[in-house]
Design goal:
InterPro entries: CAT-like_dom_sf, Condensation_dom. The protein has helices at 15-27, 45-58, 97-110, 146-156, 159-162, 176-184, 186-203, 230-243, 247-263, 304-320, 326-340, 369-374, 417-434; strands at 2-4, 9-12, 32-38, 64-68, 74-78, 81-83, 87-91, 121-128, 131-140, 222-229, 268-274, 291-297, 348-352, 380-386, 393-398, 404-411. The radius of gyration is 23 Å and the shape is globular. Strands 12-11-13-15-16-10-14 form a seven-stranded mixed β-sheet. Helix 7 (186-203) runs parallel beside helix 11, helix 8 crosses helix 13 and helix 9 packs across helix 13 (417-434). It contains 13 helices and 16 strands. It has 448 residues and is of the alpha+beta class.
């Protein structure tokens, strides 16, 4: 199908795009993100065509590709028009269309992506007995993030909007080329300088070491441990009700305390992913604007509630300084490390990816501790191993209903698999204890 939209040109990558571009190069992935979901009854292939054409025309991000120029710079290229295909897959009469849709999703994600030639959108409709039952949408993370994808999904679900039966409101958020221009402006550079000054002060004070060192290196090298814990969901609701602190801070506090117990390292230093939608012009942007803020959390001899309060304060402060050019930050880290005479390990990350289920975590809390304890029997731990590299430690909260689904992805040449399981189990146990006992102590013995 043909599409066209407002805005075109060539510009530097925005800071958010640059952050993801470098991560993709480190991890050898184009970071596909998306879904395979049932469609509402009555949906037609023409509806999907209209959605795809609407997406491509409305959002410059969906018309963005990347090219490498002779000067060695990678730049974003936004097209004014073009052509894109919608795949229609017919499931056999005896097949489960949901399984077919999931197979299409996996195929889209596994296929290579040419950043210079391919559009960052892949869409398919699955039909069963000739009737559309499922839709598959995969987006390249370079052009959007989870919160940007929510903006897209909210608009393309409006049939009147995508079919042109009502006026299309103007795009008010900064688009990727405008973001890059603002970032290079005097105002953008002043804000950037203030962010780097803050980072430099923190970098000069933090312990250089994050992890105990290689104790049980494995092959494949990179392991993921994922715990599905209904008990933690109930416990977090109880902690939220007692403390009024947001659930993302509660989950970060559980991770920080549990990791400190496993490693004996205090303070814990982690890079928290900030969505940056609180910044001017970015609330409704489709473009990727997530960065990480550096969060330093000393624990010592405190209660969990005291640690939680500190985590919340320090995370909010870290978010304020989580918008920067990653190339310049890398130079700063290298300079401070050289001046300190030791390498600075900043490869511990925390990302709360919940979009749909975040509010469900804040539902009415359980009133009986026995209800929380009984749910422990439904916990499920899963492992995945791969050779594809990741960061040394990346903690993620996943968007799953009726449970708290959290994972640790780690390099076993730095972190033993047993430590991953101990941390996850420790988070669950701490949550259950702290749900109704504000006096729980966080650490008995720590090392610096």
């Amino acid at each position: 199908m043909r599409f066209e939209g407002d805005g075109s040109g060539v510009e530097e990558l925005s800071w958010g795009q640059r952050e993801l571009w470098e991560a993709m190069r480190r991890q050898f992935t184009w970071m596909p993100m998306g879904f395979a979901l049932p469609v509402p009854p009555g949906t037609t292939v023409d509806d999907a065509v209209a959605q795809l054409r609407f997406m491509m025309g409305r959002y410059q991000s969906m018309r963005t590709r990347v090219r490498r120029d002779p000067d060695g710079h990678d730049r974003q290229v936004v097209a004014a028009s073009g052509e894109i295909g919608l795949e229609v897959v017919d499931a056999d009469p005896g097949e489960d269309p949901a399984a077919v849709a999931e197979a299409v999703r996996q195929r889209f994600c596994d296929a290579d992506h040419d950043f210079a030639r391919d559009w960052p959108v892949r869409m398919a409709v699955v039909r069963h007995h000739g009737v559309p039952t499922h839709q598959v949408v995969i987006l390249c993370h370079l052009v959007t993030d989870g919160f940007g994808a929510l903006v897209i999904m909210r608009e393309i679900e409006d049939r009147d909007l995508v079919h042109g039966r009502v006026p299309v409101p103007p795009v008010t958020a900064l688009e990727p080329m405008a973001q890059a221009r603002w970032e290079a402006s005097p105002a953008g550079q002043r804000e950037h300088a203030a962010v780097l000054r803050r980072w430099e002060g923190v970098l000069r004070d933090i312990p250089a070491r994050r992890f105990p060192g290689p104790a049980d290196p494995r092959e494949p090298r990179h392991w993921q441990a994922r715990l599905d814990s209904p008990a933690t969901l109930l416990a977090v609701r109880a902690i939220r009700a007692r403390t009024t602190v947001d659930t993302s801070s509660i989950l970060l506090a559980l991770f920080v305390v549990s990791w400190a117990r496993v490693t004996g390292v205090d303070p814990v230093v982690t890079r928290v992913v900030a969505n940056n939608r609180f910044r001017r012009g970015l609330a409704e942007t489709v473009s990727p604007v997530t960065h990480t803020g550096l969060c330093v959390i000393p624990l010592g001899d405190t209660t969990f509630d005291e640690a939680l309060s500190a985590v919340h304060r320090r995370t909010v402060a870290a978010y304020r300084y989580a918008y920067y050019d990653p190339r310049e930050l890398d130079k700063l880290v290298a300079r401070v490390a050289a001046e300190r005479g030791e390498q600075l390990d900043l490869s511990c990350f925390f990302n709360d990816r919940r979009l749909v289920t975040r509010d469900l975590t804040e539902a009415p809390p359980p009133s009986d501790p026995a209800e929380v304890t009984a749910a422990l029997g439904r916990s499920r731990l899963r492992w995945h191993r791969q050779d594809k590299p990741v960061e040394r430690l990346f903690a993620t909260i996943n968007d799953e209903p009726d449970t708290l689904d959290y994972e640790l992805f780690a390099d076993t040449h730095h972190i033993a698999p047993a430590d991953l399981e101990s941390c996850l189990r420790g988070m669950e146990a701490l949550a259950v204890r702290a749900a109704f006992d504000p006096s729980v102590r966080v650490l008995e013995k720590v090392a610096t």
